Structures are given as structure tokens and as C-alpha cells.
Amino acid sequence: MVDKITRRGFVKAGISASAGLIGTSAVAQGDPKITKVQKWAQELGEGLDTRPYGLPSPHETGVQRRRVPWLTADAYSSINFTPIHDLEGIITPNGVCFERHHAGVPDFDPADHRLMINGLVDQPLVLTMADILRFPRENRVHFLECAANSGMEWRGPQMDGAQFTHGMIHNVMYTGVPLRLILQEAGIKTAGKWVLAEGADASGLSRSIPMEKALDDCLVAFKMNGEALRPENGYPLRLVVPGWEGITWIKWLRRLEIGDQPWHQREETSKYTDLLADGSARRFSWVMDAKSVITSPSPQMPITHGAGQTVISGLAWSGHGTIPRVDVSLDGGVNWYPARMSGPSLNKSLHRFYFDFVWDGKPLLLQSRAHDSTGYVQPTKDVLRQHRGESSTYHNNGIQTWAINEQGEAQNVEVS
Amino acid sequence: MLKFLNSLIAAVLLATPLAAGTLGLGRPALPDEIAAWNIDVRPDGAGLPEGAGSVLAGEGVFTEKCAACHGDFGEGVGRWPILVGGEDTLADERPTKTIGSYWPYLSTVWDYVYRTMPYGDARSLTVDEVYQVTAYILYLNDLVEDDFTLTKANFTSAVLPNQAGFKRDDRPQTEYPDFRKPACMANCKPNVEITGRGTAKGAEMGQ
Questions:
Q1: What is the model's pLDDT at position B3?
Q2: Which of A180, A314, A357, B157 could form a disulfide with A294 if both were Cys (CB 3.0 to 4.6 A apart)?
Q3: Judged by CB atoms within 8 Å, which residues 55-94 of B form the interface with A?
Q4: How far does the CA of residue B2 sit from the closest CA of chain A (Å)?
């Protein structure tokens, strides 16, 4: 109750401060876009089938994946970032889902693809794509977050844009076969406790996944958002490991081996392990903990309308479940207000939140704080550093701060 | 309806070629096919093929096929991975994570080199060349002498220094109890100061 009174008081103050600005955008002589007949309202537009596969409006060409060249040695074993600051709702369009490859994007005919199941099974199997399409299938929406998302921010604020601080994430609807059904088709021997998933690309990317997870909610997916997986996202077949770090979601999936121990592959030992302050390291830190970020305003999405009614829009997610609640702070974490959740609340999926308020035109320190369905509350970066030091690289889910100045410009900052 | 279902079940049973599955999909994988793809190697040596490689032979292979990115002595060229050094730096402010200082198991080196190196020409090394390169990397890290030969038989006796440096994810014990507490909503701290600013603009990053 105290919180509600506090928020009402703030909003009321905001309204009185900005009252003088209402109506300043009125046009004295009438808006010619209204008073004159426009070309597009007179002539025929493009006929249908101009583009059999449609593209966004040419006015939206700025909505693009971007990479940061100095992060990696080349563009074949590298990463780019989803333009989360430009997107709304919870579904990421296929064309802007971030990419992370270890040997580029392989190009091959799905008719040439094979999925082998071997190891501790009753009958080693080879499945073609045609075979895969005959298994019972499911549809589920899940976020995929790279373990290194926000990894450049451990030692302090660096990347000036939500796309770069938080854009190693996407959220699509997958259509796929439960991994459990494929493993059961080969028959899992009692000693089988781990699954090695391996990709068909030149990196042969491979990760060990415990049988409990494999039999729980993993999918072998062939569609994203209704259409075939994009080549850069694993066409024709990828593993979906809900709630777990993206590196486990093996793309171009060609092999599943059952074993009694993990394999300790390169991407689960030298990489994707979390170095702590004392020099020890966590391995098999699979789950992505609860996290959120305000996508607008943000450095790439400044407030351009001046003081007055303002929308704060953001994303929240948790590898442990759903996000029933997000709090927003306008003052760097002194006071918090419950945000408004909007759109479907799905398990291990992105959630959208909003906070509508009247901006008084004064500087803001915007933060968001996710609460997940297990009661986990997104920690501050300082608290994370107290637990892990500054060299963890991965799993940085600390609270993000955007400083908004009087002009509405936003900057990536950290606060005390 | 029942008759239809019965005949359907009978048809499925007749069409099922395998004992293991319930759906009758796919075909048995042949031994040669499994051998071609089942190349992974575990820390206990499981999966290692017969073979051997000396440090001396490894120097030649490494210089020809690896040094362009990793440097003649594994020191790394540009942003390509450093393979050597970094001992006792893991708790430093800027740790150097290499095969010698960080990797827990030698099997990972063998597996990774055989699986995907040289970069851009994966699976082009012979089994013996992989043993050679692996032996040479051990030598570069001062873990063996220059007359050492790595074989399937002595493989598991080569222990990397940081093998004991890893632990299973302990967030459920060390962090979740702290983070699953009610959150403060009002007057949560006395004051707020900006302690750092990010300045890496998108325009400077080649967008």
C-alpha cells in the first residue's frame, strides 16, 4: 500500500510539472499531411506478389543485428546482437535473432542431413529429416540467451546500448520433437546418464547434457516461428534446451551419444565455465537466472518527445520458470514501483513489461528488477561481484542502469 | 472404430523394423558409420584411437598448421587463443586462461584439435598428428620434456595443473538462498551516485 501511495505521489508531481507543455506540438495552419491529398492516397500502390517473401518496410532498415568487431578475432567464430531496443512484444522476428557460430554457417541440403543416436542404447539409429518429421511434435516458446550476454559488463559499464549489453538473446516458438521420444526410439540403457549433443558444422560443437534434462523438456526443433529454422540458427535441425545457456542448444544437430559420464568438451571446460575470485571455477552452470532490461528508453532509443507521458518498455526472463513480477526504479534503486506485465507469461520465455509515467524532464536513473516464479529476485551487479568477483565472463544477470539526461538521452551507467 | 484401430496397430507392428523403438522410425546405424562420427574423447581416455606422437614431430606440425593463429610458442597472434602460460594468474585481476593454466583435462585438447583444427580445415589432421600437436602443447606449457612421446597408453598419466580447479555449479547453495528474499521497495539506500559510465558507442563499433 505504501508503494502505491508513493507512486501516485510521483505521478501527480509529474503531471503538474509537465502541464505547461501540453499542446505545444499543435500545428497552427493545419497539418499538410492531412489538409493536402497525398500521393499514396491517390495512386495505386504496389501489386501483390512484388515480394513473395515479404520484408520489413524500407523505413525500418535500421532494425538490424549488429556485431562488435573488436570482441572476436574474425566473423566466423563470433557473435552479433539482436536489436532488442527496436522490438516489442515477446517474439523475436527470425531475421534478427542473434547469431553465434564457431565455424561460420554451414550450407547444406536437408536431404543430406543425418541424425545419429549411438552409445549406451539398445539400437544405434540413423534418422533422416523425413524420419524426424514422422515423430509426434510439440510447439513451445522459449528464450535462448548466450551465457556471455552482458559479459562485457562485469568490470563496469562498457557497451552503450541495450542491443550490445543484452542482445545475445532471442525468443521464438519452436516446433520440434521431444528429445525424450528420439532417445527412447533407440532405447536408453540403464547406465546412460549423459547425452552428448554434436553439431554438423566444421566446429563439430558438442556439449554434455544430463539425462534428467534430456528427458524433461528438450526439443529437437526444425521450425522457428512457423517456418524452417534459419541457416544461422541451425537449419535444418537444432536442439532446444529450455532455460539453459545457449551454447547447449546445439545447431545443425547431427549426433546424440548416450554415455555414463560427461565428456568435458572444449565449450564446457575452457569456455562457458565461471572463474571465481579465488581462482576456482564453476562448471556445468547451465541455468540462466532471472534477468531483465529496459529496452526503451535506452542509449539507442532516447526519449525524443520531451517531458510528459512516457512509456518504459522492457524484457524479463528466467531459466527457472515464469516472471510474475518486474519492478522499475526511476532513481537508481532507491524506490521501486511494480511494472505492468503484458502479453503471454510462458515458461522459460521472454516476458514484456511496461511502466507508464509522466516524465518531469529531469534526469532519471532507470532500472528494472525481475522476480521469477521461484521467488528469485534479480541481484545488483555489486552483489553478483561480491559472490563471483569480476572475471566470471558468463552469467551476468545483474540489474542494468540507464542514466537519462534532460535531453532524454540515455547512457549505460553503474550506480552506488 | 475399434476394428480400424486394431488393424492400425497391427499395421504398425508389422512395419516396425526395430526392437528398441516404439515408433519404428529410422534405421540401424552401421558400425562404420558410428566409427566415422563417434570421435569424442573423454578424460578417462575413452574414445582415444591407437596412435602416438612425439614433441619433436609436433613442433613441425604446429609450426606449419597452428602457429599462424596461435604463434610459434602458443603465445597467440592478435585475438586468437593463447595456449601457453598464465600459471597462477586465475585469481588475478586479469587472469590468463590457457591450456596450461586453466583447462582441466588433456582429453579436451586432443578431442578439440581432432574435431575442428586447423581452423577452416577441420578433420584434416591424422590421428598421429593430433597426438603430436597435443604432445607439443604439453611441452610448450613445460609439462613434459622435449623427448616425450604421447601415446594412447600413457595419455591419462598426463594431468593438467588445473584439473582440481573446477567444481559443480554451486549457485543453488551459495546464491539462491540470498537472492530468494523479499525485495526492498522504498528508501532502499540513503543516496545514489554514478560510479561508472559506458562509452563504447555503436557507431564506433562498425554498425
A1: 52
A2: A314
A3: 69, 78-80, 90-91, 93-94
A4: 22
**Is there a contact between A123 and B170 if contact means CB atoms under 8 Å apart?**
no
Q: What ipTM goes with this model? A: 0.90
Contact (CB<8Å) A282/B169: yes
C-alpha cell at A75: 566473423
The class of domain A66-282 in CATH terms is alpha beta
User: pLDDT (tens digit, 9 = 90+) per residue, A121-178?
Assistant: 999 999 999 999 999 999 999 999 999 999 999 999 999 999 999 999 999 999 999 9
Chain A residues close to B200, C-beta within 8 Å: 68, 158-160, 164
Does A24 have pLDDT greater than 50? no
What pLDDT is attached to residue B20? 63
Q: In total, how many domains does chain B have?
A: 1
DSSP, res A151? G
Other C-beta atoms within 10 Å of A208: how many?
A: 22
CA–CA separation, A149 vs A170, rounded Å?
A: 11
Q: Give the C-alpha separation, A46 to A31, whole Å.
A: 26
CATH of residue B60's domain is: 1.10.760.10
Look at A282 and B171 and tell me if their CB atoms are within 8 Å.
yes
Residue with more model confidence, A5 or A258: A258
Nearest C-alpha of chain A: how many angstroms from B5? Answer: 18
Mind telling me how many Å the CA of A31 is from chain B's nearest CA?
Answer: 35
Domain membership of residue B137 (yes or no) is: yes
Q: What is the pLDDT of residues A157-166, one digit of tens each?
A: 999 999 999 9
DSSP B145: -
Nearest to A414 among B120, B195, B206 (CB): B195
Cα distance between residue B103 and residue B106, in whole Å: 8
The type of residue at A91 is I
The closest CB to that of B20, out of A122, A160, A334, belongs to: A122
Pairing of strands A351-359, A308-317: antiparallel
Assigned fold of A291-413: Immunoglobulin-like (2.60.40)
Rounded distance, CA A245 to CA A172, Å? 15
Domain assignment of residue B107, yes or no: yes
How far from A56 is each of A59, A60, A80, A97, A170, CA to CA, in Å? 8, 6, 20, 15, 18
- Residue B147, in any domain of the structure: yes
- Could you report the per-residue pLDDT of A272-314, keeping only the tens digit for each? 999 999 999 999 999 999 999 999 999 999 999 999 999 999 9
- Which residues does chain B have with pLDDT short of 50? 1-2, 10-18, 202-207
Of A283, A300, A379, the CB nearest to B166: A283
Range of the structural domain that residue B153 is part of = 50-163
Residue A51 distance to chain B (closest CA, Å): 27
**pLDDT by residue (tens digit) across A39-94?**
999 999 999 999 999 999 999 999 999 999 888 889 999 999 999 999 999 999 99
Residues of chain B found within 8 Å of residue A326, distances taken between Cβ atoms = none
Contacts of B28 (CB under 8 A, 6+ apart): A123, A124, A125, A126, B18
Q: Considering only alpha carbons, which residue of chain B is nearest residue A197?
A: B40
pLDDT of A12 over the 50 cut? no
SS3 assignment, position A49:
coil
